Amino acid sequence: VSFRRGRPGEAQRCFELAADRSATPAERHERLRLASGAAAARNFGAAAVELLERAAGATDDPDAAAEALAMAAMYRHRCQGIMGRPVLGAETAALLERARACGGSGPRAAAAIAMAEGWAPGFLSRSRAQTEEALALAGRAGDPLLHNIVLDQLIAVEMAQRDLGGALAAVRARLALLAPLPVDARSGFEHYDALHMGCRLFLAVGDLAAARRHADGIAALPFFREERHVGLGRRVEVEVMAGDFAAVVAGGELIERDWARAGRPVAGNLAVGAYCVATAHAMLGDGPGHRRWVALTEELLGTPVSGLGNDCGWVPALDALVVLHTDGPAAAVQRLTSDPDGPEWANPNSMLWLPWYAATWAEAAALAGHPDTAERIDRATRAARANPIALTVLDRSAAVAAGQLHRLPEMAARFAAAGCAYQHARTLRLATPP
């Protein structure tokens, strides 16, 4: 009841207390699994893992123990953004070995272990063939939640191959699989994560309306009533790329309030939204607001933003937007040193931000009259091929470089139709230079 009423922290504590008073090992195991689900739903990953380990130790069923330990291993590497501390590969490998050693021979245990192996440290086990085998095992086990987790692994495989269309198809399959399932402590995190990935992927392909719907779907999940910062973090990502910076700043106030109420946890997956708020302050010329939100981002990360480098994707993409807007094209060319074809974009998650970064990288060259403008536009077009907003930025860049400003009003209309207010206004300014 507490979970459905939007109090996942209270629900977690209630499940733990109920586990302590359980009459049977099976009952204790189930209540600890529910407590783990509540912890994951509120982005307390370390607690979720610890509760799963306790659940494995509470049962005399080898299949149930193996599944719980495999789930714990999965969280550690699939969900590093909610762990609150660095994840050590050796610890995860040990969890997987314990899962195998349980001796579970049932289809659920086999499917859970195969799923967890695909999220192993360094993803050394992950391949399309391995993921397809895990999908087949999950299908035979008849567990839609487990099947959905393997589909999330397929999303990662598609992104690693820079196939955003394939990743979108997989996230649609996840959402369809989860749609008939009740939103409860066991399923809550998966409902959240599927909507989260939907929001991120639709944003990557420039479908702002769909990304916004998925962000709002997160905010509407009943267990986030008292922790709205999780859903609002996704919404500000959409609005910062749409260019509604005032809405981002207003959303930031609610994010900070609810995050403080939750105890200001370290949760790296929420850092992106905080950095979007920092970006909005910078775009509005608010230096103190920008610095304060960079500090909040670092508090969420548990590490300085400067230490992330370019391989996280969102830092260079958002910084590129700011530097071109505030410092001008020449300075942007000098500062945007990350090559869209470089190894720093090899991380599958960075693909979500590559179209936006690549477009700004090429636009800076066009506006600065850089000699390699044509080459940059060509390379950026390949990187942004799935994102019509980014492609329109590149069309605009080519028109500016060719001195064809008469083409810009039509491009401004395309930005308006896409719901991208900032780029619409920017195009009109470029069309009528002083």
Count the beta strands: 0
Taking the sheet with the most strands, its summary is: none
> Given the C-alpha coordinates, what overall shape results?
elongated
Number of helices: 22
Query: Which secondary-structure class do the elements indicate?
Result: mainly alpha
Rg for CA atoms: 23 Å
Order of helices and strands: HHHHHHHHHHHHHHHHHHHHHH
**Average of pLDDT:** 92
Low-confidence stretches: none
**Beta-strand residue percentage:** under 5%
Distance between the termini: 62 Å
Q: Indicate the percent of residues in helices.
A: 55-70%
Assembly type of the chains comes to: single chain
Describe the protein's architecture and organization.
There is one protein chain. With 434 residues, the chain is mainly α. Helices cover 69% and strands 0% of the residues. The chain has 22 helices and no strands. It has helices at residues 8-20, 25-41, 45-58, 62-78, 89-101, 107-117, 128-141, 144-160, 164-178, 188-204, 208-219, 229-242, 245-261, 271-283, 287-301, 314-326, 329-335, 354-368, 373-383, 388-401, 408-417, 421-431. The termini are far apart.
Short structural description:
The chain has 434 residues and is mostly helical. The chain has 22 helices and no strands.
Features:
about 425 residues; mainly alpha
Write the layout of secondary structure elements.
Elements: H1 8-20, H2 25-41, H3 45-58, H4 62-78, H5 89-101, H6 107-117, H7 128-141, H8 144-160, H9 164-178, H10 188-204, H11 208-219, H12 229-242, H13 245-261, H14 271-283, H15 287-301, H16 314-326, H17 329-335, H18 354-368, H19 373-383, H20 388-401, H21 408-417, H22 421-431
Helix pairs in contact: 1-2, 2-3, 2-10, 3-4, 4-5, 4-6, 6-7, 7-8, 8-9, 9-10, 10-11, 10-12, 11-12, 12-13, 12-14, 13-14, 14-15, 14-16, 16-17, 16-18, 17-18, 18-19, 18-20, 19-20, 20-21, 21-22
